[in-house]
Amino acid sequence: MKNILFTLALLISVVSFGQTAEEYFDRGYDKAESKDYYGAISDYNKSIEINPNSANSFYNRGIAKSNLKDYYGAISDYTKAIEIDPNEADAYLNRGVSKKKLKDYYGAISDYNKAIELVPNYPMAYYNRGLSKDDLNDFYGAISDFNKALELDPNNANAYSARGISKELIGDLNGACADWKKAASLGSSDSAKWVANQCN
After folding, report:
1. What does CATH list as the number for 121-200?
2. Is pLDDT above 80 for 56?
3. How much helix, strand and coil, in percent to the nearest 5, is found in the chain?
4. I need a surface site. Which of 67, 127, 152, 159 has the fewest CB within 10 A?
5. What is the DSSP string of 63-93?
6. Domain 20-111 classification at class level
């Protein structure tokens, strides 16, 4: 009888293992870290099936979809995460990035604005908003955002590089070269090429 009970208990533990929303989420997260995005999405699906109000599961599934270039799917998941937790600045930021990939620059800026409203000192939100302003040929607005991003994160090579491009486009080649030199010193190989080709 003891052996039968032990066997039943073992079977129950095997069947129940990995069945909670949290366990599926954790396994999905680990798969995403290993770049197994399809596997991650499968686990996040199960996590959401068990707990449909998990903002983190929707958010992380959105990241996995974005990595697979499924930007519409990513936007849908970020939107759901925001519905569940309207104060999640990262969800607005990442939804903005996906919108930019789809060339919805105004929509992206709107999301970055919301991320900044929630977290006023959010360097990546300023940086990404600057990129979308660049896409809309608002070069002075872009420079202002890159300035703020660099004030908050002075070692962001990408922000120096992008600000240099904006400066070049308004005719300030000296300012562009200064930014590209700084970006090159921080490891930007593209900026180093631009310095070699365009700067004295």
Report:
1. 1.25.40.10
2. yes
3. 80, 0, 20
4. 67
5. HHHHHTT-HHHHHHHHHHHHHH-TT-HHHHH
6. mainly alpha
CA distance linking residue 84 with residue 54, whole number of Å: 8
Q: At residue 188, what are phi and psi to the nearest 5 degrees?
A: -80, 110
In this prediction, residue 17 has a pLDDT band, given cuts at 50, 70 and 90, of low
Where in the sequence of the chain do the CATH 1.25.40.10 domains occur? 20-111, 121-200
Alpha-carbon distance of 184 to 191, in angstroms, equals 5
**pTM of the predicted structure, to 2 decimals:** 0.87
Neighbours of 187 (CB within 10 A): 10
Q: How far apart are CA 45 and CA 158, in angstroms?
A: 34
| CA atoms in the 13 A half-sphere facing the CB of 147 | 8
Decide if pLDDT at 67 tops 90: yes
